[in-house]
Design goal:
Blueprint lengths: L5 H22 L5 H6 L2 H18 L12 H15 L11 H5 L6 H17 L4 H11 L3 H4 L3
The protein binds protoporphyrin IX containing FE.
């Protein structure tokens, strides 16, 4: 039979608890100054969103969906959202993602088109590739809400 000496269990137990604590710390949304700074802070992000808007208008895969929207509001809210997601000192005060996109029947092709345009806009603003990827990674958890899955 296995020897279940309680003294032998203490060390692994403590290690396990320490790992859980470290894990929790890295999961909470601690501001990540480096990504926010790599994006050029709020001003840099605002420039990216402006260029994204031009790309959306030109893109026949998605521009119909955006017809008639309040451009200034979209620009302000998406800038805040990306600022907050990148660890910047902003608070997103726009509408809730699922509710906002729920009637749009957004397809994978359209979701990808928007992500592609965001990458292009970051490219146009000389954002380093690593920072581009990290921002996209932070947007991915929004995918099920935006696709209404
Ligand atoms: C990563 C993907 C996406 C993110 C992070 C995102 C985020 C946002 C944000 C922050 C707003 C502004 C919210 C507000 O003003 O309250 C918005 C509005 C909007 N989004 Fe998205 N979105 C995404 C994908 C898409 C896609 C793929 C489409 C359609 C093809 C789309 C269509 C729209 C439209 C039409 C509006 C304006 C709605 C209105 O003002 O009535 N979005 N989105």
């Amino acid at each position: 039979m296995t020897n279940l000496n309680p003294k032998r269990l203490i060390a692994p137990l403590m290690l396990g608890m320490a790992m859980v604590l470290v894990g929790c710390q890295s999961m909470n949304s601690q501001p990540d100054a480096s990504l926010y700074q790599q994006l050029g802070e709020r001003e840099g992000i605002a420039n990216v969103v402006e260029d994204l808007l031009y790309l959306i208008v030109e893109d026949d895969r998605i521009n119909q969906q955006f017809k008639g929207m309040d451009v200034a509001q979209f620009h302000h809210n998406l800038t805040d959202q990306l600022c907050e997601l990148s660890g910047g000192p902003c608070t997103y005060t726009g509408r809730e993602m699922r509710e906002l996109h729920s009637d749009m029947a957004i397809t994978d092709t359209q979701f990808n088109a928007l992500a592609e345009n965001l990458i292009l806009a970051m490219e146009q603003n000389d954002i380093p590739t690593g920072a581009q990827n990290r921002l996209i990674k932070r947007l991915l958890p929004l995918y099920p809400d935006i696709r209404n899955l």
